Amino acid sequence: MHSVVLSPGSPLLCDSLSVFVYHELDGGALAREQPIFTTRAHVFQIDPSTKKNWVPASKQAVTVSYFYDVTRNSYRIISVDGAKVIINSTITPNMTFTKTSQKFGQWADSRANTVFGLGFSSEQQLTKFAEKFQEVKEAARLARDKSQEKTETSSNHSQASSVNGTDDEKASHVGPADTHLKSENDKLKIALTQSAANVKKWEVELQTLRESNARLTAALQESAASVEQWKRQFSLCREENDRLRNKIDELEEQCSEINREKERNSQLEQRIGELESEVREKETELNDLRKQSEIIPQLMSECEYVSEKLEAAERDNQNLEGKVRSLKTDIEESKYRQRHLKVELKSFLEVLDAKIDGLHDFRRGLSKLGADS
Known about the structure:
The chain is an alpha+beta fold. The chain contains 4 helices and 10 strands. Helices cover 65% and strands 18% of the residues.
């Protein structure tokens, strides 16, 4: 029965661990275990249902220590969180401590049927813990080899004593010697029985380790399959991301082209507005010219009327010689005005024709510009 006892007056968790672990020995004696290496880390255990996810065993970093049992010549990793023992793992030569990241390591304990994980605050602490694990593992292997050698030696002595005892019985019958040999023989038989029991126990432990190894292998294969699946999903996501980036680049290029087209349309609209303003001005000038052209028939009628008056005046001149000089003056003035009006009319008609031609050219240019846009 294992228990944890604290030294009086000392806190539960401290840098210099003062925890004494006791276990019952044959005859009720007590042996004391003390830590040979101590560090602090966050403790995790594998989820027993999924065998994949880590479950925190401590809310914060706790003390994790290596203990050495002098009597049993064994090593254990022990960690206590409050009054709860969260790690009590006996190290065997078959165990392996694996670094899974720069600050995290794990090992499988077949007796506890679980996998322990430790998260350290620095890579240096993880390295020191891993080196100590390897050192303690090697010491456990040496202790196991020595125990096996002792068992084999005891078994050989037992068999030799049994043979020697039989020969002595056949050679002579000595009372005290026979009693002593029987006693020794009985002790060796007991040791041999215990050795056989230990062999069976080791066989059971070996089978347990094999089963644990099989479970860990299956979990590793599942993890590898999960990793491959995540890799495929990551590859698909990366391809989709590249496709979306290309689509975004195409859309940005289209937006740039649309903005340039909008700018060109804005310039064209501005130019069309200016041209429409010029057209309105030209139409106003054309209307003015049309109004002025309406006066031409009146001027023509006036000219005809003046001509008629002139003819009448000439006829009257024949009849009225006395009024010839005054009429000639009137005629000269009338002719002068007529010539002047004709010149103005001709000039006005030329200007009007030029304006009309310019307006027609302007309309043709405006129609061509509208067709091009």
